[in-house]
């Protein structure tokens, strides 16, 4: 099993969710986050005063998929979330040693 952690632009969330569902991903967790990287923020004006926003709003997706689906899920996120501009996000893939469904006690692939 693989855990995929992806950061994407907020307006891409629904499109990415639909694309992942269409390839067989059965669930994911979504968190609103803020961060910076190459995009390094931007300038905004609030009540006539200009200030720098160094942390940019992003969405973090956490999903655990069978190893056989991981590459396709990463490709789906990459293609769907891409705008071609700085700040499109990052994807990390980690090995998962064990998964347990709390309600039933199912483990590993059965828990997904």
- Envelope shape: elongated
Q: Total number of helical segments?
A: 2
Uncertain segments: none
Computed over alpha carbons, the radius of gyration is: 17 Å
Estimated helix fraction: 10-25%
* Average residue-wise pLDDT: 91
End-to-end Cα distance, whole Å, is 9 Å
Query: Biggest sheet, strands in spatial order?
Result: 2-5-1-6
**N-to-C series of helices and strands:** EHEEEEHE
The description of the largest β-sheet is: 4 strands, antiparallel
SS strand fraction: 35-45%
Number of E-state strands: 6
Structural class: alpha+beta
Account of the 3D structure:
This protein is α+β, with helices and mostly antiparallel strands and 112 residues long. It contains 2 helices and 6 strands. The protein has a 4-stranded antiparallel beta sheet, covered by helices on one side. A two-stranded antiparallel sheet has the order 3-4. Strand 3 and strand 4 form a beta hairpin. The longest helix is centred in the middle third of the chain and has 15 residues.
